[in-house]
Amino acid sequence: MMQMRTHTCNALRLADVGKSVKIVGWMENVREVGSNLAFVVLRDFYGTTQVVAETEDMLAIIKGLNKESTISVEGVVRERASKNPKLATGEIEVVPNKIEILGRCRYNSLPFEINRSREADETARLKYRYLDLRNPAVKKNIILRCQVVAALRAAMTEHGFLEITTPILTASSPEGARDYLVPARKHPGKFYALPQAPQQFKQLLMTSGFDRYFQIAPCFRDEDARGDRSPGEFYQLDMEMAFATQDDVFAVLEDVLPPIFAKFGTYSVASSAPFRRIPYLESMETYGSDKPDLRIDLTCKNVTKLFENSDFDALKGQTVKMVDITDCTLTRKQIEKLLTDCQVQSGSKGYWFKVDENGELAGGIGKFVGPVREELSKVLDLKPNTLVVVAAGESATKSVGVMIKTFGAACEGHMDKERYEFCWIVDFPMYEIGDESGELEFCHNPFSMPSGGMETLLKAERGELDPLDIMANQYDLVCNGVELSSGAVRNHDPEIMIKAFEMVRLGEEDVKKKFPAMYNAFCYGAPPHAGIAPGVDRMVMLLAGESSIREIIPFPMNKNAQDVMMDAPSTVEQKQLDELHIALVGQLEE
User: Does Electron transport appear among the keywords (predicted)?
Assistant: First the structure.
């Protein structure tokens, strides 16, 4: 034990009664009984111990301190008269003969009660994060994160992967999000970029002759926050394999992840290998999402043809998708409330009808469904007490995906919540029509190998194949409706790479200019390679059973990408701007 203490605040038991000990920690609570007795709860990283001040000298010290001051207590262990079975140290207490003040808390009141900090306003929690982290319930998530990262490192090493760190200061690269730029003092007018991912470097490692690479990689993207995405920076289990196929990547993660989820997760059940594989188009058609939560047994059915001539304008001539939910006991009020929630998430209105206990159509749009009930019953399960939710229009797929998740969680018996269910989403489209440009763009990772290679691209070039029908050797790993990672078999052939970029109006010179190292490296002979990068933050969030990713990050930013504790981003001195050859243009807000 360290010189400053003989035991931690979670170590002492009945067997230690009579021992002289020294413990240190924070004064979590003080309860005075009369004028000659005080009970102090002392807390350190490991737990708590009750200290009983019974002498005038000891009481004087305790009464002069605010809660959360740090102290050292030397004394004797004795058995407690009134035991607390809820505490590991609940059978003993320490009677001090010496108390030393190590760090005085100079504030009479705290921003929030430490053990109830999770109930406090989020801004206060982030501003005083060092106090928030004193709460054992908050600290538990950070400890879990450390344990998971250590387990991931051990598992990857056992599978023959080398942990190699890649640069943080690099060149700007079109990865799909905004870069964080860093001005280069020695090169006026030029900028480094913080890596959105180590994508190019890990592929270059494969061309360098390394066979299996991984790292717990920091990634930086200037994007908005979500419940499962932290703005600014995040970490991923980045990995790449040379001379590898999609199946090789799948085999590694299917071996690495289930034991970690089963050991550290809130739920003890996790999918075993092989994980289910679902083609992207099938996932969108069946679940209305490329991130399906397979714990939910609901699926959607496309019934567009049955409503081509409907009397209900919202369905007539529209894409119509329905989800049948058997044995549903939700009331009309509950259904309407959930549909409103779905509309907020998807941006489009949903509808419903129900088959009552007598087998009659009732509620919502039931009267408009009656004329096609016989045909509809061949597609849907319309037995008594079945609720059917309906999405229509251009956004029907997105809407029905939200409905499945919302009603699946709300309707008893349709979601097995106590498990981790993995699946692979495969066969993503290589290209899409950009919402803003209206032109062909890469759908996801531009470094993915198109299915069929050069032959497929040439068919599209000759007009024999719609570019939107080109699939990529690309895949996502999904767990409980959360996208854990994206990966791909990489496009390692410079000729195929150039042809793939030509499809989005970028020529050979553009490729050489944007990706000079990768293009040149591939020209020296590159191995086929593949990889993936599961998000560590999202993984720990799932394991901890948290709904917000900020709960598992030691020092998170707020939703506006601000660190309110450190006051970042902040202004800098003019001298610093001058050194970097930067001039601020326009009126800046305070």
Answer: no
Which tokens go with 49?
A: 């111990």
155-195 pLDDT per residue, tens: 999 999 999 999 999 998 765 678 999 999 999 999 999 99
Q: Note whether residue 388 is domain-resident.
A: yes
Number of domains in the chain: 2
Give the residue numbers spanning the domain of 19: 14-103
Q: What is the pTM of this model?
A: 0.91
* Cβ–Cβ under 8 Å, residues 523 and 494: yes
311-337: pLDDT as tens digits? 899 999 999 999 999 999 999 999 999
Phi and psi at 448, nearest 5°, equal -80, 150
Q: Is 282 annotated as a binding residue?
A: no
Is residue 376 situated within a structural domain?
Answer: yes
Give the residue from 155, 157, 346 showing the smallest Cα distance to 253.
155
Task: Determine, yes or no, domain membership for 9.
Answer: no
**Domain finish residue from 73, 103, 133:** 103
Question: What is the distance between the alpha carbons of residues 568 and 566, in angstroms, rounded to a whole number?
Answer: 6
Question: Which of 47, 72, 103 is a domain's end point?
Answer: 103
Task: Give the contacts of 162 (CB within 8 A, at least 6 positions apart).
Answer: 210, 212, 213, 214
Q: Is the residue at 327 inside a domain?
A: yes
Q: Is 223 annotated as a binding residue?
A: yes
478 is in an annotated binding site: no
